[in-house]
Amino acid sequence: MKKHVFDFLRVLCASAVILFLLTAPEIVFSFINPKLSVCGNFDKLGAVFLLAIALSLVENKTFIKWFLIVFGVFQLVQFNSMAYFGVYLTPYAIDFIFLETGDIITEIKDVWYKYLYIFALVGVPYWLLWRLISRGVLNRVTFKYGWLLPMLYVAAFFYRASTPNGIFQMLFKQTCFASYNTINSFSAYLGNVLPKKIIGHTQEKIYPDYKLTNIEKDKNAPVNVIFVVGESVNANHLSLFGYDRPTTPELEAYAARNPRFVYKKAWAAGVNTLIALPMLYNIQVNPKNYRKLIKRDSYLLKMAQDNGFKVTYIESQNPSLFKKTSISHYDKAFVYSSKNGTELKGENGFLDMAFSGIDLNDGRNFVIVHKRNIHSPYNDNYMYENGKYEIFKDARFDERVNEYDNAVRYEDMLLMKILKFAESSKHKTYLFYLSDHGEALGENGVWGHGHLSPEDLEIPFMFAMFNGTDDDFTNRLREKDRPCAHDVALWVAEKLGWKVDVTGEDLNVCQVNGRDTMGRAGVLKIIKKSDGTTDFKLEK
User: DSSP for 131-168?
Assistant: First the structure.
């Protein structure tokens, strides 16, 4: 009896040491980012303690070594996400690490060294844990098949991920224990998200078809429609919208002399480019209605060609993104690449080159410009004109904010270039501008994009018209309070000669998609109430 009590105390003490070393990274990280600090969430701590008990009973040291290596790699991914974005890792964020590897490498190429401490943060306590186990200090009470316990522990998470209620709880459960979130998120990804991507998703809701009516009266009448899709633009960092730094002086001057210029804040379609662009181009109102992306029955580029428009697509980012967004139904494309980037001196020169190849005086043109500026790393955008646009250097601001605001100042110049290009036509020309998504800049501790939070989703909308008037249309845009992304897509479709009736959806509700094209990573519904207030509802 005495031996059993002694063994129990040994297991308890060993488990406590293992628990401490497993959670040491998040304890230390609490001092780096208090927003993501550990807390009194004892059910999650208890779940990690169960893992510690299971590991303390394993006799096979090789199994423990590889378990710690695999879990340590998962923790490195988790803490890098927490350090860079300021949020916990989610299963769909893991998925996008593979989908956007190139963009991630580009984003961190100038700041990677700032996150090297993560390797020590995770590596030191895990190495110490392995040394204690390998030297026999821990795991004094074990049994031959003890390795089954950690395997059963992980299997329980995988089983939970396979059930409908379980996976939704795992997708959206926030925790103040990073170690638990690592187990939770990787189990959900490996046990549900990845398998469904491989084998396909069979159960789905069928949504009503849109009703498309061709309202074009003269398919030979010369007209231009230009749709500019910005990149990572936070409306609250444009002085055009009241920001206290002079980030958009040229746009402000333009607005002062052009009473028909419409500009206002809007809501994004999705949390990142790969989600937002297909939604905009296909007028996808409901993120869960992903069949719109397959059927393409309301695809702006095709609708334009059907009404006699020559379609030109300008991709200012890279050939990979051009392919990933499956752009089709275009007559001409200009795609930026690193090969000609230095020669052209960045986006400024690239736009000059692209615009020189487009004749807005030749018939009917639909031009889509997807921009690169202001994507991170922000200072890369204006690197060829540092002396002119490296204006904000206030040490009281986070350096990322200074660099972002400099990129906005550069965007101010680029947008004026696009406006002058539109104005150069002698035919009636409509220009629409909307960012693909926003960018969080430290609000509530959140940085970057990819998050279903309002700070990440407020974007600018602008409209200008040249060589003609369309007062009824312009007034409708002016009267619309904070348009949704789908509103803008519908307006573009209208000027391409199509009336699109979206059945079964409340168009007064903006539906912002999370990190999954099928709407499984959450949908933030932005409900604009009659009293002028706004409700935010996250649907899982």
Answer: HHHHTTSS--S-BTTTTHHHHHHHHHHHHHHHSHHHHH
